[in-house]
């Protein structure tokens, strides 16, 4: 099956490819149930993530509670990714304070955490949308928030 082939040509998952993927996932799920497998992990390729019609595909393979859980986790992972955007582990310590309307993160680390602050501004929107809290970034020893 070539689920992502159409994405590279048109930016969309093709209907026939989605149908085939849903059939395959249904068969896998049936087999897992028969074998008593309770824990599993399904991973979407970049083709699914980058397709313009990914929501239609995801709605076919995840029920509502699974979609909510995945979206909540994605919002947390986007914040975590922003805090190590260049993947060089500049952040050495993190303190978090959660209030009714915001999550404030205090960072400590090596010099040059500006990329992390910039990235957080771009990636915190899903967290705000899902949890109703703005994400603010502060550096240990500073009083002013530098990202919202």
Please describe what this structure looks like.
- By secondary structure, this protein is of the alpha+beta class.
- The chain folds into two domains: 57 residues, 2-Layer Sandwich (Nucleotidyltransferase, domain 5), CATH 3.30.420.40; 68 residues, 2-Layer Sandwich (GMP Synthetase, Chain A, domain 3), CATH 3.30.300.
- The protein is built from seven helices and three strands, in the order αααααββααβ.
- A three-stranded mixed beta sheet has the order 1-2-3, with helices on one face.
- The chain is elongated.
- The N and C termini lie far apart (43 Å).
Question: Topology of this protein?
Answer:
Blueprint: H1 5-10, H2 15-35, H3 46-50, H4 54-61, H5 64-82, E1 91-98, E2 102-109, H6 114-123, H7 125-131, E3 134-139
Parallel strand pairs: 2-3
Antiparallel strand pairs: 1-2
Helix pairs in contact: 5-6, 5-7
Average pLDDT: 88
Radius of gyration, taken over Cα atoms and rounded to an integer in Å: 19 Å
User: Structural class, judged by helices and strands?
Assistant: alpha+beta
The largest sheet, given as strand count, sense and whether it forms a barrel, is: 3 strands, mixed
Name the beta content range. Answer: 5-15%
Assigned CATH class of the largest domain:
Alpha Beta
What's the arrangement of strands in the largest beta sheet?
1-2-3
Shape: elongated
- Secondary structure: helix percent: 40-55%
Q: Give me the CATH fold name of the largest domain.
A: GMP Synthetase, Chain A, domain 3
Number of strands: 3
The total tally of domains equals: 2
The DSSP helix count reads: 7
Topology as a string of helices (H) and strands (E):
HHHHHEEHHE
């Amino acid at each position: 099956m070539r689920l992502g082939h159409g994405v590279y040509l048109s930016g969309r998952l093709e209907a026939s490819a989605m149908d085939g993927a849903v059939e395959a996932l249904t068969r896998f799920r049936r087999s897992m149930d028969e074998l008593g497998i309770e824990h599993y992990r399904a991973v979407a390729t970049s083709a699914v993530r980058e397709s313009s019609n990914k929501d239609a595909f995801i709605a076919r393979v995840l029920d509502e509670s699974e979609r909510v859980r995945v979206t909540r986790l994605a919002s947390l992972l986007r914040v975590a990714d922003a805090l190590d955007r260049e993947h060089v582990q500049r952040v050495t310590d993190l303190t978090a304070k959660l209030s009714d309307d915001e999550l404030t993160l205090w960072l400590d680390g090596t010099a040059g955490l500006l990329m992390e602050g910039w990235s957080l501004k771009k990636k915190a929107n899903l967290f705000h949308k899902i949890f109703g809290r703005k994400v603010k970034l502060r550096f240990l020893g500073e009083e002013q928030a530098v990202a919202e």
